[in-house]
Amino acid sequence: MTDSAAVLFVPASAPAGESKSLAARYGVLCALLLVAAAIRLPLAFWPNINHNDEIYQYLEPAWRLLGHQGVVTWEWRDGIRSWFLPTLFAGPVALGDWLAPGGWGAFVAPRLLVSLASLSIVATAWHFGARISRAHAIVAALAAAVWFELVYFAPHTLSEPLTTALILPAALLLTGEPSRNRLFAGGALLGLAFVWRFQYAPACAVFVLGACWRDLRNAIALIAGGCAALAVAAGVDLANGSIPFAWLVLNIQQNLLHDRASEFGVAPPMAYIQLMSILWSGATLLMLMALRRGWQHAPLLIVAAIVNVAFHSMIAHKEYRFIFLSIPLLIIAAALGSADWVQLMRQRPGWRHWGLPVVCAGWVLLSLGLSGATYTMRHNWMLGTAEAKLATDLDVDPEFCGLALYGMHDPFLPGRGQLAIGRPVYSFYQDDPLVNGQLSALVQKHQREFNRIIAPASLAGELPPDFSKRTCALASHDINTCVFVRRGACDAFTTGPFGINDVLVRLND
Predict the structure, then answer these.
(1) Distance between alpha carbon 238 and the CA centroid of its chain, in Å?
(2) Rounded to whole angstroms, how far apart are CA atoms 162 and 155?
């Protein structure tokens, strides 16, 4: 490691005139954490879903751990997912359902938990900056608190933001002059991060190498911490009746060797760079300028971010959330670089007291502008809200006794508004081998088993005449989707061959 690469890791004494009492110093940090919480926590109640995995890979498995029924996707049937995160979510899901029965509490409580977890990024940014100066600490923490991508992903129950909330503190612990205790704790956090999202291992390796580069003995405490975390993960697997880490072997086999993930779409290697430049829009050049200055303060953060993007760029199936770890790494490094401009402005007559407010205001205004500047972000903010509207329609419907999804491949609704829909859920989809071109006839045949249908408005003519349109919303892929209702009760409460889980098995989905 070069001397410049070690700059970030050497604790720096505050410049003259910047030493403050402990209470005053951390009072500002607490204020920034409160600001970040005030922005993030309300978003837990906003029914926005970035990806179905939030429900079907984490919350529904947590719901099933509590003894309830739920949708089972192919990942869980094939055993390629760890039970760690669903086990972690089971407590908040149970608490939320107890406080607000019917599903919404079980949906919101875990989102509040992950929103709070995201505050670790803000605290970490502060401490990285504090190694340089108080101004650097304030700018870095503020940027992490308000940056639109970090705010957007904060309430989503996905492995990427949760794992990032572990890796950033680990990076802080493993840099500077880490003690044995810090190395052990950092290794434990990286061990958990590996279990929660093993694809972040290459980026984590950057910090491991940074910690061991000058003293290989550091690896002993670091490895011990990692092994302790892996032992806990193995215990979780055993408690759920699984062979420890069998899911990891199967996941690599399915997604890396058999390329199963490519069935859900592929993108060229430069896709992440292109999307990042779109989301950052006109601020991209400014960010690059700040990162150039940030390199002298936080080279390993930038290297880890680049390694993470490069690794995921080699995988054909791409989703922006996959590289989420790189976003806070780059934002913190850029914020540290922009704080240098505060020092430069303080040297100019008339700007001595304006440098810090100007730079901080710049981060706030930039984030506010970019949060809705592009179609992509405006679309992201509204993802899932239409489905939530349809779910609410069912939730307040006292006559609802059975639901059929018609012409919809994605089982978004049963777990969307309420994790425990409490009624039979049927699925009628054209690609189902049992349909055999008779989709409309099958719905006619089974219509007495359900009295609500969710279907695209364009397929209304294929539904039984007893069903009439009630509530519509522009759902996923900008398809106008509606709830269709018929009067009367349901004759049966067995889903037969068209129960949603049976259909998913036949579709291998």
Answers:
(1) 26
(2) 10
Question: How far apart, in whole angstroms, are the C-alpha atoms of residue 482 and residue 478?
Answer: 12
- The pLDDT tens digits of the residues spanning 429-469 come to 998 999 988 999 999 999 999 999 999 999 999 999 999 99
The single residue listed with the structure tokens 């939030």 is 54
- Alpha-carbon gap, residue 170 to 189, rounded angstroms: 6
Flag residues of the chain having pLDDT under 70: 1-25, 350-351, 409-422, 492-495
Task: Report pLDDT for 413.
Answer: 52
- Rounded Cα distance between 290 and 129, Å, is 14
pLDDT of residue 416: 43
pLDDT (tens digit per residue) in 47-93: 888 888 998 899 989 988 988 888 888 999 999 999 999 999 999 99
The DSSP string of 225-283 is HHHHHHHHHHHHHHHTT--TTHHHHHHIIIIIIS-GGGGG----TTHHHHHHHHHHGGG
CA atoms of 314 and 445, how far apart (whole Å): 48
Cβ within 8 Å of residue 306, ≥6 positions away: 326
User: Does residue 272 contact residue 312 with C-beta atoms inside 8 Å?
Assistant: yes
Do 290 and 337 meet the contact criterion of CB atoms below 8 Å apart?
yes
How many whole angstroms separate alpha carbon 52 and alpha carbon 494? 26
Looking up tokens 């700018």 gives: 139
The rounded distance, in Å, linking the Cα atoms of 244 and 500 is 29
Helix, strand and coil percent figures for the chain, each rounded to 5:
65, 5, 30
Distance between CA atoms of residues 62 and 81, nearest Å: 12
Helix axes 134-146, 119-130, angle to 10 degrees: 160
Cα–Cα distance, 88 to 98 (Å, whole number): 17
In contact, 188 and 233? CB cutoff 8 Å:
no
pLDDT value of position 482: 92
| pLDDT at residue 24, rounded to an integer | 64
Alpha carbon distances (Å) from 504 to 82, 200, 396, 456: 20, 29, 27, 19
Phi then psi for residue 405, to 5 deg, are -95, 125
| pLDDT cut 70: percent of the chain above it | 91
- How is the beta sheet containing 468-475 ordered, strand by strand? 425-428, 403-406, 452-456, 479-485, 468-475
Q: What is d(CA 93, CA 79) in angstroms, rounded to the nearest whole number?
A: 22
Delimit the domains of the chain by residue range: 4-382, 385-507
How far apart are the two ends of the chain, measured CA to CA in Å?
Answer: 46
Assessment of whether the complete model's pTM goes beyond 0.70:
yes
DSSP letter string over 1-70?
A: --TGGGGGGS--PPPTT----HHHHHHHHHHHHHHHHHHHGGGGGS---S-THIIIIIIHHHHHHTT---
CA angle 210, 216, 220 (to 5 degrees): 100
